[in-house]
Amino acid sequence: MKNLLLITLLCLLGGCSGEQSAKQGTGGKNQSGKPKIALIMKSLANEFFSTMADGAEQYQAENAEQFDLVVNGIKDERDLGRQVSLVEEMIAANVDAIVIAPADSKALVPVLRRAKKTGIVVVNIDNRLDSDVLKAEEVAIPFVGPDNKAGAKKVGAYLAGKLKSGDEVCILEGIRTSFNGQQRFAGFQEAMKEANIKIGDHQSAEWEMSKANTIAASMLSEHPNTKAILAANDSMALGAVAAVKAAGKSGDVLVVGFDNISAVQQAIQEGKILATADQHGDQLAVFGIQNALKLLEDKDAVVEDVETPVDLITQETLAK
């Protein structure tokens, strides 16, 4: 009898709904009355993604009455398991929407399908999810981001204008299972083919500066006629610049990148890097958040991709 009275008292004080208790502290619409959006990115050690986070947080601060924001990222862009765990944590936290830059185009699809099945709006940014896997999982997730192939082709074409027909170049690829890495490599290839530039070697440095430095040094040694190195992101471009300098070839081997991080802007101004592509990282997550808010307003809306800008950055454009 005493136990029954105690249980009754606890129910009166705290509420008896197991569902309510589970949602306390989750931060969905239960506390603030506003939707909660989770931004899940790749490595925050990469300046591009820290810039993306800063842009998203600034946008939330300017629109605090519209939504709450949780920002997460993994330490290593290859740590797929941790990024899957982050999605699972956000599902458990009962967020209203997930905006994600997936570390892998295929591996994240199943857990994102599970998120959608719980009613969470999911928006894909930066690195497009694999269309075949999405189809196999029977899930539609909109992609908000740039045409990476077109952006890389702009950079490659600009580089080709500084070279001669028949010259030899090398390419540093990103993670090969990432759609954006595949598309940037394809854009570089297409630009080189159209200019009749030979690709002497191409290897994946997995987006990492130190790995790019080691691979670029090997490329320069094995291919002494290399006239340029095309890097699929700016971190790898910086690694390539260091390798070029160590080989005593500064000024003789051109380097291009992709992302327009601040360190590369400085390197372009100093003539160490020829060009990069700006996919407006400070706004990319914002575009995804805006799309998520629209879908939250109307969950029956047609899921559509949104192409965002990508621009060529050179000494000339930085001088404007």
TrEMBL record:
<dbReference type="InterPro" id="IPR028082">
    <property type="entry name" value="Peripla_BP_I"/>
</dbReference>
<comment type="similarity">
    <text>Belongs to the bacterial solute-binding protein 2 family.</text>
</comment>
<dbReference type="GO" id="GO:0030246">
    <property type="term" value="F:carbohydrate binding"/>
</dbReference>
<dbReference type="InterPro" id="IPR025997">
    <property type="entry name" value="SBP_2_dom"/>
</dbReference>
<dbReference type="Pfam" id="PF13407">
    <property type="entry name" value="Peripla_BP_4"/>
</dbReference>
<dbReference type="GO" id="GO:0030313">
    <property type="term" value="C:cell envelope"/>
</dbReference>
<feature type="signal peptide">
    <location>
        <begin position="1"/>
        <end position="22"/>
    </location>
</feature>
<protein>
    <submittedName>
        <fullName>LacI family transcriptional regulator</fullName>
    </submittedName>
</protein>
<keyword id="KW-0732">Signal</keyword>
<feature type="domain" description="Periplasmic binding protein">
    <location>
        <begin position="37"/>
        <end position="299"/>
    </location>
</feature>
